[in-house]
Design a protein that fits this description.
There is one protein chain. By secondary structure, the protein is mainly α. It has helices at 2-7, 17-30, 35-47, 54-66, 72-84, 91-98. 68% of the residues lie in helices and 0% in strands. Helix 2 runs parallel beside helix 4 (54-66).
């Protein structure tokens, strides 16, 4: 399982919505502190922010918060979608967003 999680920490520019969500969780859990990786991750998340699934948005923001790597621009870009989809989110997603 650990090797699978670490495999997600490859170049973020190749990741889709689901991959970004899983990578954020893995990076936070493994304590990844590489600035270059997080910058690439954030850039990719911004690039595809309009198509991110809400489940993945929750994982991405939760992972970034746990790693203390939140990006204000990304959060601002995602807030309108988060607010308009609150009614569809599960309690788990809401808990991840509020962390």
């Amino acid at each position: 399982r650990l090797l699978g999680a670490l495999a997600l920490l490859r170049d973020p520019k190749d990741l889709d919505s689901e991959g970004l969500g899983k990578a954020a969780t893995a990076a936070a859990r493994e304590g990844l502190h590489e600035d270059e990786w997080w910058q690439g991750f954030t850039a990719r998340a911004k690039e595809i922010s309009d198509t991110l699934a809400m489940h993945d948005v929750s994982l991405i923001l939760n992972g970034m918060a746990r790693a203390r790597r939140l990006d204000k621009e990304l959060v601002s870009a995602l807030m309108p979608r988060i607010c308009s989809n609150l009614v569809y989110m599960t309690s788990a997603h809401l808990a991840m967003l509020s962390s």
